[in-house]
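stage 2 :: seqdesign
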């Protein structure tokens, strides 16, 4: 028996994200139902929306070439970085696409003319573009609109430790 070649749209599906949710995952800015004749005439193009968040931060390669769909990602989703740029150490990674970072700072006590150590924990959205993130890494986060009850920042850069 002779095998039939795969249709063109089959390869588009392979290039897309893994469909693990109940709703169909796609980027709203990309039209997926191109005619096969147009696609083959122009050649295979990467159908993926990415953007530069600005402020000197590079878009990760995984964001440009990866297959994930994340509407809260600053590189591929509908989120804009504005306001504060902070850094902290990754403390926990137990939530889906959200991490907890610890920010240490010094507080001055006037009576004793000394500083005391204090810290704050922050919940931060972490895009799937940063797959190689581990506990203890120093991350740079940027302020964005509220993404949930506790999340108002998005990871935009990583500085690996050790």
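stage 2 :: out
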């Amino acid at each position: 028996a002779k095998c039939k070649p795969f249709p063109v749209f089959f390869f588009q599906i392979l290039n897309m994200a893994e469909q693990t949710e109940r709703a169909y995952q796609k980027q709203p800015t990309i039209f997926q139902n191109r005619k096969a004749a147009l696609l083959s005439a122009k050649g295979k193009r990467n159908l993926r929306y990415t953007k530069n968040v600005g402020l000197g931060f590079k878009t990760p390669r995984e964001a440009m070439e990866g297959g994930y769909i994340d509407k809260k990602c600053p590189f591929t989703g509908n989120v804009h970085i504005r306001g504060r740029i902070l850094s902290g150490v990754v403390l926990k990674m137990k939530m889906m696409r959200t991490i907890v970072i610890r920010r240490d700072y010094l507080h001055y006590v006037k009576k004793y003319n000394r500083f005391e150590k204090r810290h704050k924990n922050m919940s931060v959205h972490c895009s799937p573009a940063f797959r190689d993130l581990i506990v203890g890494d120093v991350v740079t986060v940027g302020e964005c609109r509220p993404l949930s009850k506790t999340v108002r920042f998005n990871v935009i850069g990583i500085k690996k430790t050790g």
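stage 3 :: structure notes
- Confidence is low (pLDDT under 50) at residues 6-15.
- Residues 8-15 form the longest helix (8 residues).
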